[in-house]
Amino acid sequence: MSLSQTNFLSSSLLSSSHDLRIPYSRAVLSYPRIQTHRILCAAKRTGKRRYPSERRKLRTEQKEAVAKVKNKLEGVWRLSKLGVPVGDDPGKDFLGISEGLLQAIAKVIEFPVASMLPEEAFSVIRKSFDARKILKEAKFVYTVDLDVKTLLELEPRAHDFIFRLEPKIGLIEHVPTEKSVSGDLISVVNDCKRINSETASGEYEPQIINGSGDPHHHGGGRSKPKIAVVGGGPSGLFAALVLAEFGADVTLIERGQAVEERGRDIGALVVRKILDMESNFCFGEGGAGTWSDGKLVTRIGKNSATVLAVLKTLVRFGAPDNILINGKPHLGTDKLVPLLRNFRHYLQSAGVTIKFGTRVDDLLVEDSRVVGVRVSDSTNQLQTTSQNLKVDAVVLAVGHSARDTYEMLHSRNVELIPKDFAVGLRIEHPQELINSIQYSDLANEVLKGRGKVPVADYKVVQYVNDKTEDLSQSSSKRSCYSFCMCPGGQVVLTSTNPTELCINGMSFSRRSSKWANAALVVTVSAKDFDVLNLKGPLAGIEFQREFERRAAIMGGGDFTVPVQRVTDFLQNKLSETPLPPSSYRLGVKSANLHELFPAHITEALRESISMFEKELPGFISEEALLHGVETRTSSPVRIPRSNETYESTSLKGLYPVGEGAGYAGGIVSAAVDGMFSGFAVAKSFDLFDGTIESVIGKAQGAVLVKY
């Protein structure tokens, strides 16, 4: 989610019209140094609230939509925003056509008898849950495709009703039969190869620059280009998949372990407090998102061909089909582990060499071009020997916690640019409290993830204007927002060094735990780094380390997390024991979290929490516990690259991609970026002939995604 967003966002899962006030004691404080404004100008205007220019634009778009329809009786009509009250819907896990949905469809197409409409003519494209307070009643909201041919074959009397149907922006859209529908990524690449074969008669002229060793051969005795993909997270996996499908000789290098061994390493951390610095919640197969919530929500276009290609690929490897339909798709760690195992097996069958427990220590550079990587065994801390791997290109797909990689790149004079990110605390509530705040009387329908409605979540944003002596005398805006909200989840340790302490949240697929947690974070930038006299492209990394070390000291070591009741944090006092229970399994310790951050960050957090209470009454609760510290919300640097070739602007042969390079945030956007980079690298070696956009659409811009 872009930080340029200016309106307060509450979750689409807000409480119903019953205004439930939770009787928890709370304190709402005011601070003269910070002014908080709720900004409404960015809210979407509808009806009479639209500006004249917006009305004219809407009328123009409406006329264009009508003109595009060549034959109403062919193709597909897409019907959006079909509301079905909770009482008329089978529930969140039902993705078929119910009687209540047929009634909503009949109303839109003005068909008199809903029961006469054949279910076979309709398919659900999207289903979400809407329980906002402004609604009279909570409802499920659908997007449905109506197949005209099937409908008329099974119910000919619908002919006149379809003939009278007109497009309506945002509600009714005609999709021609010839409009392509994205398949999974493997199918997309195979289609590209088929087209290349038809247009070029199978000619293949790969560009080999530095490949060496025992090359595989491809047609005519020519060698395949050798590509090293560094990092086994979403961007690395999808880049490797594309390149392997196009015929490159791919080596995937991951410093952590495969999910099976990684799970055991995480178990040793949680149970015995033994941290493996190379295989943990951050490092290992699947990346940091594997042992997180597994969110597949993205702001780069959930119905775009690129996102659908990623989601359909995940389904191919074992994800449930419902991720293609759910408005807020989510997997959970338990679903990701077998999916990643299947993904790995497919890559290996496609010829990809996968090296787990292998760390890239350096790049091999000749004449300002990468010609290989120097690697070592990350499982043996005593080993000092290394190995050189010669390759033609390196796809750098590390995560945002690969700090030693950033330092290596800096020593190699690879251009790095400091990037804004966010730091803060993770708040945890009883999940039943969040259900009550959001759903009111419907809270009893959650049933720990097995009920009719989803486990409640929330998303909140506030902007504060701060003016401090430390930063500047001019007022500047700073956003405070919830990040990686994990309903029915737990707080986990994401440290990669025993002297540092940082945390995150995770959930399993059912989201059945008794806690809900989310990070509450504040944006920070170069001016914040300056306050601590931190300069240069790696200043953000040192900024993170500073507060992670402070948190470790405040917790007393041994990965114990410093915590404070929300009510006590607002009043700046130490929480008395016993503390509310926490899902964090390595131990918590009462501490004054005001001593953690600079005053302006603490003030911004306090003021924002007070404002969040106005949107979510009961958010400030004696049972709510703040945990410190959350620092790794996104990469603290960006590695500049070409918008067309994805190649580094400062080192040829290096292709920085994904979250660690500063071009994604979350599983889906990282996978999409890896996919685009795979096509770009394939094109640079003449494995792919054509434009990337013509195959999978336009690439997203570099964004900071809050998920």
UniProtKB/TrEMBL annotation:
FAD-dependent protein C-terminal domain: residues covered: 420-633
Domain Pyridine nucleotide-disulphide oxidoreductase N-terminal residues, every copy: 226-283
UniProt-listed InterPro entries: DHPH_N, FAD-binding_protein, FAD-depend_C
Region (Disordered): 204-223
A Pfam family: Pyr_redox
Protein name in UniProt: FAD-dependent oxidoreductase 2 FAD binding domain
Source lineage: Eukaryota, Viridiplantae, Streptophyta, Embryophyta, Tracheophyta
